[in-house]
Amino acid sequence: MSDSDLNPQPLPPQQQPPQQQPQYGAYQPAQPGWNVMAIVGFILAFFISVVGVILGFVALSQIKRTGEQGRGLAIAAIIIGFVEIAIGIIVFIFVAIGLGVAASQYQNY
Fold it and tell me: Judging by beta carbons within 10 Å of its beta carbon (0-12, 13-18, 19+), is residue 98 exposed, middle or buried?
């Protein structure tokens, strides 16, 4: 037996491949942003209810297709718009009833 069999030489350390750093200018997929239609619909739901409801539904369909953020805003625009329309109808009915009562009392004088 030789001396080299009894004392084996250590193996050289294995080199790991270098981790790749993202290069500047390399294509990175963009994160989907906020749906502008949902934001505008939410704001307009407070002022012009019908337009807010319509934009909310359009924004929901766009968000399903594109995966953008803003689903909550679109749903809020729809709900707020419908609530304001319902309140407007109720107020109109009460005003019409009040005007009818006032007109009937005016004729009695």
Answer: exposed
**Closest among 89, 75, 90 to 45, alpha carbons compared:** 75
H or E segment to which residue 31 belongs: none
Tell me the CA distances in angstroms from 48 to 8, 30, 77, 98, one per residue in order: 86, 33, 11, 25
pLDDT tens-place string over residues 4-50: 567 667 766 777 666 666 566 666 566 679 999 999 999 999 999 99
Q: Which residue type sits at 101?
A: V
Give the pTM: 0.67
